Amino acid sequence: MSQPTNRVFSGVQPTGNLHLGNYLGAIRKFVALQASHECIYCVVDLHAITQPTAVWGGPAELARNTREVTAAFLASGIDPGRHIVFNQSQVIEHAELAWIFNCVARMGWLNRMTQFKEKAGKDRENASVGLFAYPTLMAADILLYRATHVPVGEDQKQHLELTRDIAQKFNNDFAERIAELGHGEAYFPLTEPVIEGPATRVMSLRDGSKKMSKSDASDLSRINLTDSADEIARKIRKAKTDPEPLPGTVAGLAGRPEAENLIGIYAALADLDREAVIARYAGQPFSVFKPALADLAVEKLAPINAEMRRLLEDPAEVDAVLADGAERARAIARETMRQVRQIIGFLGA
Ligand code: TYM
Q1: What pLDDT does 2 receive?
Q2: Which among 18, 22, 65 is the best mutation to test ligand 1's pocket, defined by most ligand atoms within 8 Å of the CB?
Q3: Is 240 a catalytic residue?
Q4: Which of 97, 231, 270, 302 makes a 20 to 30 Å CA pair with 23?
Q5: At 3, is the pLDDT very low, low, confident or very high (cuts 50, 70, 90)?
Q6: Residues 136, 114, 66, 293: what is their CA dihedral angle, to the nearest 10 degrees?
Q7: Statement: residue 220 has pLDDT above 60
Q8: Ligand 1 neighbour 198 (Cβ under 6 A)
């Protein structure tokens, strides 16, 4: 099998409260990349269980959230016929390759991961081993399909650098064998992150210094993809701002994180750059800008919201998409694992 040259892989955790940051930072880009790439989009349920059960909610909640992320993919415009949509646990090769990568990655590399430090908090002794090893599973997700491009938000950048380090070390450690088996100089590609546009890091609506997140205790901090039009408008109305009118240039947003965030959200939703949005609203007060942003957000999100609701009323349709996607993902994953076992020297491969 030759290396794919334009394959996209990305994943979203089914941990509830899917929000505007997930949509603008990731899902919207998943949709756009379908035109130029062969895409594989995964609901990463094996990642969700690295957190305490109280966080991911237990079996019923996990199933509900897995369907919700899938529904968001489909409602946003991902085509599961032409591309692949599935949930991770149905393709067990993810766990197998993650084990191998646990033996490639070094403790020192994982010790530097800032997301582990944030998620484990002060009580690190009590974090799961899975949370610590999370980035090796993420590298396995991507490299199982030898994906060349990975669209993500800014917060995943460090994990993608680690993925490249793992690929490189594997390629080096087994270089001779890889060449002997006819795979050329490298078996795994050095994956490129796709982190672009005005909304790679959407901030909380209540605090411009904090990332918009699924786990923020305040629901006013984020716009959920399941929020009604009224809720969206109310949250934007209540969003924290400063008393100054909007500046005349993008440079004028410096030191005004809340204004910068709302301009970035507008730009991403309208498919404009920030300069164009500033040009449109230069010198205007938030009392003018916020209602315009609320109208735009409702216009873009309401159709997604309606389609998600429709899909969630009939889980059979969503489940069928996942089963079909898993079968097609498995065909690729099995072949990669057969080759990886051969490269390492496991008998029987
Ligand atoms: P997760 O589930 O936390 O988030 C899903 C995607 O949404 C992006 N994102 C944001 N983008 C902009 N602003 C925000 N406030 C914001 N919050 C989240 C994330 O960057 C991500 O792209 N580790 C991943 C899931 C994963 C994965 C993978 C991704 C597992 N395996 C392989 C890519 C490739 C995560 O926890 O995403």
Answers
A1: 61
A2: 22
A3: no
A4: 97
A5: confident
A6: -140
A7: yes
A8: no
**Residue 47 contacts by C-beta under 8 Å, 6 or more apart in sequence?**
11, 13, 88, 134, 137, 138
pLDDT number for residue 1? 47
Strands 149-151 vs 38-43: parallel, antiparallel or unpaired:
unpaired
Per-residue pLDDT reduced to its tens digit, 108-146: 999 999 999 999 999 999 999 999 999 999 999 999 999
Sheet hosting strand 84-87, strand order edge to edge: 84-87, 38-43, 7-12, 149-151, 192-194
What average pLDDT score do residues 42-68 get? 97
Task: Calculate how far, in angstroms, residue 85's C-alpha sits from the geometric centre of ligand 1.
Answer: 16
214 catalytic per annotation: yes
Distance of CA 61 to the CA centre of its chain: 20
Test site for ligand 1: of 155, 196, 201, 222, most ligand atoms within 8 A of the Cβ: 155
Domains (ranges, CATH) in the chain? Answer: 7-200+314-344 (3.40.50.620), 219-310 (1.10.240.10)
Give yes or no: 157 in active site: no
Measured between alpha carbons, how far is 47 from 274 in angstroms, rounded to an integer?
A: 34
* Digit-coded pLDDT (tens) for 276-317: 999 999 999 999 999 999 999 999 999 999 999 999 999 999
From ligand 1's centre to the CA of 279, what distance in Å? 31
- Whole-model pTM over 0.90: yes
Distances (CA, A) of 115 to 110, 121, 133: 10, 10, 11
The span from the CA of 157 to the CA of 163, in Å, is 10
Q: Is the pLDDT of residue 349 over 90?
A: no
**Catalytic residue (one of 119, 157, 169, 290):** 119
Which one of 117, 122, 210, 211 is the catalytic residue? 211
Give DSSP secondary structure letters for 125-194.
Answer: GGS-HHHHHHHHHHHHHHHTTT-SEEE--GGGHHHHHHHHHHHHHHHHHTHHHHHHTT-TT-SS--PEEE
Cα 299 from chain centroid (whole Å): 23
